[in-house]
Task: structure prediction
Amino acid sequence: MVWIETPSNPLLRITDIAAVAALGHACGALVVVDNTFLSPAWQQPLTLGADLVVHSTTKYLNGHSDVVGGAVVARDAALHEQLLWWANCLGITGAPFDSFLTLRGLRTLHARLDHHGRNAQALAHWLEGQPNVRRVWYPGLPQHPGHELARRQQRGFGAMVSLELEGGHDAVREFVGGLECFSLAESLGGVESLVAHPATMTHAAMAPAARARAGLTDGLIRLSIGIEALEDLRADLARALARAARVLAPPRELRQAVAAR
Result:
């Protein structure tokens, strides 16, 4: 089995699904795509050659952060029958009420994603111009290394934005402490905006050296952009960035001493 996550978490790397599917099938492997970050509205891996698609229904499909669940979708009937047999055998099917809530969320999926995407695109461009932001990762930015591939295989660029702050852990602590509209949480894809610090949250189990090799620095922050008013989100991030910038500025006493010399 070949497993693809595209865009990847948290650096939003883009994988060519069609190319990997062709290589996997040539080796006799099943090709599985985790499509949680985009949902079927923004990306349809089965049309690109994948055999199976996996979703965390907790995220965009439900969209209201009140369900824990997942879904597996097969390209052909035979594989679908195997999934049904194992789900029944192992007892891992979703509960009726969770399924009801997920179906409720699906009814507004396209409307929600349209708003998510507009907010994310605008904030990613704005964050690029902030002085204490070292780098921004968002496939919708032309300089993103996977931008052209994302344009070809996706219908939208998503609503996940990652950025690296100057100042590492200390700056992140100040940044998160200055947020009001963004809640600190590991989840994503709900109508509300969330912020996560991979080094101490989603990827804390990795050794520091492994995180460094993967490009997950101490200053990396992952944002799940919600559907709140864009002006409110931008103002919230601006306040947090201003607070984080204090880590980089020398204390007033030191500045005064330097000036006196």
